[in-house]
Amino acid sequence: MAENVALPLTVSGRVAEAEENLLSLLTWVGLGRQSMQRPPELSGGERQRAALARAVIMSPEVIIADEPTGNIDWEMSQRLLQLLVELNRMGKTILIATHDLNLIRAAKSQVASRVLRLKGGKLDMAGADL
């Protein structure tokens, strides 16, 4: 699984960065102990956390997370949200699409955010107090 998460760095020729940062990133998303497991051996929530780690390993300027906490418990949701908040504080733009109102409220309590509510595929509200 660690090899899978590091793939973007490996493909881009940044192998040293992968070796340097991979274990700490996996530990942060709660997968440090599973680093040697194969993807089919991971639970749905573990796969989701691995996908998030793979998405952020290249430190992109914009991160789009579609239901990033859909298959994980609240404690792990908070850990992943904290990672996204830290990335936002580092100047990254974070877009989260979610049905989880508790996650939205938790995010809004930590960072300045703009909430858009969609209904029927159209913008229903902007800046909604949720």
Describe the structure.
It is a single chain. The protein is of the alpha+beta class and 130 residues long. It has 2 domains: 1-59; 60-130, Rossmann fold, CATH 3.40.50.300. The chain contains 5 helices and 4 strands; from the N terminus they run αααβαβαββ. The strands form 2 sheets. The chain has a two-stranded parallel sheet with strand order 1-2. A hairpin with a 2-residue loop joins strand 3 (116-119) and strand 4. The protein is globular. 19% of the residues are buried. The model has no long low-confidence stretch (mean pLDDT 85).
Keyword list:
two-stranded parallel sheet; two-stranded antiparallel ribbon; Rossmann fold; 48% helix; 130 residues; alpha+beta; globular; 2 domains; 4 strands
Question: What is the structure about, briefly put?
Answer:
This protein is 48% helix and 15% strand. It has 130 residues and is of the alpha+beta class.
Would you count the extended β strands for me?
4
Low-confidence parts = none
CATH architecture of the largest domain: 3-Layer(aba) Sandwich
Q: Could you name the CATH class of the largest domain?
A: Alpha Beta
Q: Can you count the helices? A: 5
Radius of gyration over all CA atoms, rounded: 16 Å
Helix content: 40-55%
What's the arrangement of strands in the largest beta sheet?
1-2
Please outline the major beta sheet.
Answer: 2 strands, parallel
The chain-level mean pLDDT equals 85
Provide the structure class: alpha+beta
